[in-house]
Specification:
Layout: H1 54-61, H2 66-72, H3 77-83, H4 86-96, H5 112-128, E1 134-139, E2 146-151, E3 166-171, E4 176-180, E5 185-189, E6 197-203, E7 208-213, E8 217-222, E9 228-233, E10 238-246, E11 249-256, E12 260-265, E13 271-276, E14 284-287, E15 293-297, E16 306-309, E17 324-326, E18 330-337, E19 344-350, E20 357-368, E21 373-384, E22 394-398, E23 402-407, E24 410-415, E25 420-424, E26 431-436, E27 440-445, E28 449-456, E29 463-471, E30 478-486, E31 490-497, E32 502-509
Antiparallel strand pairs: 1-32, 2-3, 3-4, 4-5, 6-7, 7-8, 8-9, 10-11, 11-12, 12-13, 14-15, 15-16, 16-17, 18-19, 19-20, 20-21, 22-23, 23-24, 24-25, 26-27, 27-28, 28-29, 30-31, 31-32
Length: about 525
């Protein structure tokens, strides 16, 4: 660590808009007590001889955290100008948010400094959950139960007045609908389809949503206006859909109940390949974070799961076998990919005698020759779940080393080597779904609440902190939350009603800073 540099995160935690300087009390950090800062005028006492040039000053400033830069800006005009340098604040953004790549961001008219302060302010509001920090709305329209939902708006952080949170939903009433969570209104609804819609996936970059009904009819819809673009009929109902946007072009992977995997183009749903994976068995699918791998399994079966190399599913001839590998396990129940590793897969399964649950972690790779691709698999960790733990029904990954499991109403975190990090039992009734991203975890429950947790990543392993509940409607009318999703500005849950319908309940967080 360079001399004089403070540890990463020392000044960035829960940053709020201003600093406490010269006795002026205003919000700066997420700590319980405000830090008293020296008078900036004292920084320049006994002015340095010779004075630092701009290049040297920027070099020194590059070791400072955001709070220190804000203090330095109070010293004099030269320091103020230097502290506002674009590259300083861009590097602060990259250090604090690893996913904050310039190519993925839309700054608009704001500067990197404004982006840093506003995103920090938003994270503070989402961590505190104060009623004045968000707007709660109930959005009704479906005449049946909502079976699935997905955000169609991009997940980037925008503070230029153009931010939008838009979700699409499918329902047993046979419609797909789009909702603006910021405005609290329905944007459009499709015509009623001939069968109940049961699943959907979204392509935010293309502004498309794909649905499938209970008979296996797949349709593509334009997210802007709800116009239908294409359709494809599977021979049986679909057991899984996965959106797969790769450099060669966007794909849709559809698993049929007959055990076949269909690869289709998007948006026109042209068939590229069909692979028999588990004949006669419904198949589950999971794409890796980089979309180069597809995990296929059939639950609690003696058939071992398979991992396919995605590119080998494109334009395959009938007599050509796709590149894949079979994992040496059986009775698979759950699986997930680690978001920070391109090809690290965690699988929950039974051990050799079928008596205990095991979580095994694999890393995938490929070796290409002139005419074929060999799939390489390496086991890097494995551990037994405690006998006292009920079989988990939800499983997600975080970072590269952390596994989140939900068992009944309990949320438990393990490392991939089996070290239990923490356990929470904040819900009164079973947890129904779980959302995990870089900054938070959100669980929904039949107790009609959403629980919000925030990550603290200053230790060797990320620490999860339980923050607050978001409450739904009245138990007189509702039976609980069944789904939860989130983006950078909002949280949305599906609230099941006692009369066989569902509504959306959204919580929209607004940054109110200049």
């Amino acid at each position: 660590m360079p001399a004089g540099r403070k540890p990463a995160g020392w000044a960035g935690r829960g940053l709020r808009k201003e600093v406490q300087l010269e006795g002026r009390s205003s919000a700066v950090g997420g700590g319980s007590t405000a830090k008293a800062w020296p008078n900036p005028a004292s920084w320049a006492a006994g002015a340095m001889e010779p004075q630092l040039g701009l290049h040297e000053l920027l070099h020194v400033f590059s070791f400072l955290e955001a709070r220190d830069l804000l203090c330095a800006a109070q010293v004099d005009k030269v320091w103020n100008e230097a502290s506002r340098t674009k590259e300083l604040w861009r590097q602060l953004c990259l250090r604090r948010w690893s996913s904050c790549k310039a190519s993925q961001m839309t700054l608009g008219t704001q500067t990197w400094k404004q982006y840093y302060l506003r995103r920090s302010e938003l994270e503070f509001r989402m961590a505190s959950g104060r009623p004045e920090d968000f707007t709660c709305r109930a959005l009704a329209g479906h005449k049946g139960e909502i079976d699935d939902l997905a955000y169609i708006s991009t997940s980037e952080y925008r503070f230029d007045g153009q931010d939008k949170s838009v979700v699409c939903t499918v329902s047993s009433d046979g419609t797909v609908r789009a909702w603006d969570l910021h405005e609290g209104m329905e944007l459009w609804s499709s015509p009623v389809q001939s069968a109940a819609l049961v699943n959907l996936v979204a392509y935010p970059r293309l502004q498309l949503v794909v649905t499938v009904d209970e008979r296996g009819l797949i349709k593509v819809w334009e997210a802007e206006n709800g116009c239908e673009k294409a359709a494809f009929l599977l021979p049986m109902y679909s057991s899984a859909l996965e959106a797969c946007d790769i450099p060669e072009g966007p794909l849709l992977l559809a698993a049929c109940a007959e055990g076949a995997l269909y690869t289709l183009t998007v948006p026109w749903l042209q068939l590229l390949s069909r692979v028999n994976v588990f004949p006669g068995n419904p198949t589950s699918l999971l794409c890796s974070p980089d979309r180069q791998w597809v995990f296929a399994s059939t639950q609690n079966s003696d058939l071992s799961p398979e991992v396919f190399y995605t590119q080998s599913l494109l334009c395959r001839s009938e007599d050509e076998t796709p590149a894949s590998t079979t994992l040496p396990i059986w009775l698979t129940s759950r699986a997930c990919w680690t978001p920070d590793e391109a090809a690290r897969l965690m699988v929950m399964h039974r051990n050799d005698n079928g008596m205990q649950l095991v979580i095994t972690t694999y890393e995938l790779g490929s070796r290409k020759s002139r005419d074929r691709v060999e799939v390489l698999v390496r086991q890097i960790a494995s551990f037994l779940l405690p006998d006292t733990m009920m079989p988990p029904h939800l499983m997600k990954g975080h970072g590269s080393q952390v596994i989140l499991l939900v068992s009944g109403s309990e949320l438990v975190l393990f490392t991939i080597h089996g070290l239990q990090l923490v356990a929470f039992q904040d819900h009164q009734r079973p947890i129904t779904s779980m959302w995990v991203d870089q900054t938070r975890v959100i669980t929904s429950s039949f107790d009609l609440s959403l629980r919000v947790y925030m990550w603290n990543k200053e230790n060797k392993f990320p620490v999860l902190k339980s923050c607050y509940h978001l409450l739904g409607g009245s138990h007189r009318w509702a039976s609980g939350f069944t789904h939860v999703e989130s983006d950078s500005m909002s949280i949305v849950g599906v609230e099941a009603r006692n009369i066989g319908t569902s509504i959306l309940r959204s919580y929209y967080f607004q940054v109110r800073c200049g």
